[in-house]
Amino acid sequence: MSKRRYSKEDVEQARERLLELLKPGDRVYCILRHVSRSGMMRRISPVIIKGGCTMNLDNWVGAVLDWPSAGTGEGIKVDGCGMDMGFHLIYSLSSVLFKDGYALKHEWL
Q1: According to the model, what pLDDT value does residue 93 have?
Q2: How many domains, the chain?
Q3: C-alpha to C-alpha distance for 76 and 23, rounded to whole angstroms
Q4: For residue 49, what pLDDT is reported?
Q5: pLDDT of 25-61, one tens digit each?
Q6: Which residue in 102, 32, 21 sits closest to 61, CA to CA?
Q7: Is residue 93 part of a domain?
């Protein structure tokens, strides 16, 4: 999966869309799609559930954080290990959107 380059317009549109969908206190679910053999990289898909439907946020979160995303539901590339990488992903997103890493909650699916 190659790093996707986002234009400033793409990033701003993604940010606006995420702010429409997410409010402080909302729960974002993480789906683990892949773990590398070394265990040093994961692909995680952030999703929300609205009106009984699951909504994948890979594209928008990847753009806002400038983290690699295939944009095909394969997840966002998250490097590292030794901690809850889903928490790291959602904390980073929450920090960018709300200037508070704890504004969004996370849970694994």
Answers
A1: 98
A2: 1
A3: 21
A4: 96
A5: 999 999 999 999 999 999 999 999 999 999 999 999 9
A6: 21
A7: yes
User: Per the domain annotation, does 23 fall within a domain?
Assistant: yes
The answer to whether residue 2 sits within a structural domain is no
Q: Which domain holds residue 22?
A: 8-108
Contacts of 46 (CB under 8 A, 6+ apart): 28, 29, 30, 56, 57, 58, 61, 76, 89, 90, 93
- Name the residue with tokens 């504004």: 103
For residue 52, tell me if it sits in a domain. Answer: yes
Q: Model pTM greater than 0.85?
A: yes
For 91-100, the pLDDT digits (tens) are: 999 999 999 9
Q: For residue 74, give Cα distances in angstroms to 1, 51, 68, 99, 107.
A: 9, 23, 11, 27, 18
